[in-house]
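Trying the structure run again after the queue cleared.
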Amino acid sequence: MKNLLFEFDVDKIHKTVTVEREFDAPVEKVWAAWTDSSILDQWWAPKPYRAETKSQNFRVGGTWMYAMVSPENEYHWCRADYTAIVPQKKVDWLDAFCDEKGNINDNFPRSGWKIQFSENDNTTHVHIVINHEKLEDLEKIMEMGFREGFTMGLENLDKYLAK
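Done. C-alpha cells:
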C-alpha cells in the first residue's frame, strides 16, 4: 500500500485552508469523482450524512446544487457556482449555503475553492485552496467542523476509488 500524502493547513493571516491530498488512482478517475454529481453523491458527505444532488450544470457559469442529508432526513442545501474548469487539471467554484431553490443564505460565509489535479505514477495529487473573505468567516466554518467533515469525505473518496 502506498503512503499517500494528506496535509491540512489553516492560514488565518491569508484566510485560507489548504489541503494537499494524494489518491491511489489515475487522474481521470479522481477528476470524475470531483466533477460528476452521481459520483460526488457517493463520497462528498461525511457519514452518517449523505449527499444528494438536485442539479448539476458542469460548465463555467454553471452550478452544482446539492443537499447534505442528515440521518433524520433533514436537508441542508448548498451550491457551488463553477468559475473555472480545465479538464483533468483544475476546477474552481464559489460555494454557499442556500435554500432548496438555490437562494443564498447570507447568514453563512461563502468561500472560493481552487482545486488542481496532477498525476504521477498512477497517483493523483489534489491541491485545494479555499479562500475566505474575512477571518471570522474562516473561523466560523472551522468551528462548524469543516476539518473533521472534509477529512471524512476524503476518506469516503478513498473507499470509492478502491472499488
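The chain has a mean pLDDT of 96. Worth checking whether this holds up in the mutant runs.
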